[in-house]
Amino acid sequence: xxxxxxxxxxPLLARCVMSDTDPSTTADPSRTLDRxxxxxxxxxxxxxxxxxxxxxxxxxxxxxxxxxPFTPVTFAAAATAVATVAAxxxxxxxxxxxxxxxxxxxxxxxxxxxxxxxxxxxxxMVYWLVVLAAVLVAHRGLAGVVTPLLDGLAWTYDAAFLIAxxxxxxxxxxxxxxxxxxxxxxxxxxxxxxxxxxxxxxAEATPVDDEADE
Length: 214
Hints:
Blueprint: H1 10-21, H2 29-59, H3 75-106, H4 113-150, H5 154-192, H6 197-213
Helix pairs in contact: 2-3, 3-4, 4-5
Region (Disordered): 194-214
Transmembrane segments: 41-61, 73-95, 125-147, 159-178
Keywords: Membrane, Transmembrane, Transmembrane helix
């Protein structure tokens, strides 16, 4: 029985070994998700900017300051209201995208629990801040159409949007409150280095020693 030897060129063999062992040559789902999220978020941001630019040019057209027949609303206010509804819809779609992008940016594989807590809370705060921005944009953009129709009850318009704006603001404050402690631990790790096992054991033993002294 004869044994045949197959010659494999050195560069080809090295390439095959690297493809099996080098992480950079394998597909990383997190990087793909990160790219898709960035692309989606940037698309929404660019669309919102283009919408604002078109609206500004539209309000410069002749006759836009005139009143719409049989209404106390100007053509410019009506156009602004339509653009505002579109902008609010874009912000509503962008809120989870920006939140996911924030989590992916702060996420570190194998990171400590407090790092993951900071990343999760930061994503939630970004989400509610975008929602708050949507409420404020709606209040500003719809005022020219709604307040003339309310006549002497224009204050109810501000009151309604005040209540609506308080909801995301409360969530932002709540998330910020629970982020302070893990964020302080993260800052301490960055400045003074991570906590060692001896330091953590000493910190846990200190209250026991104090009770024993009493």
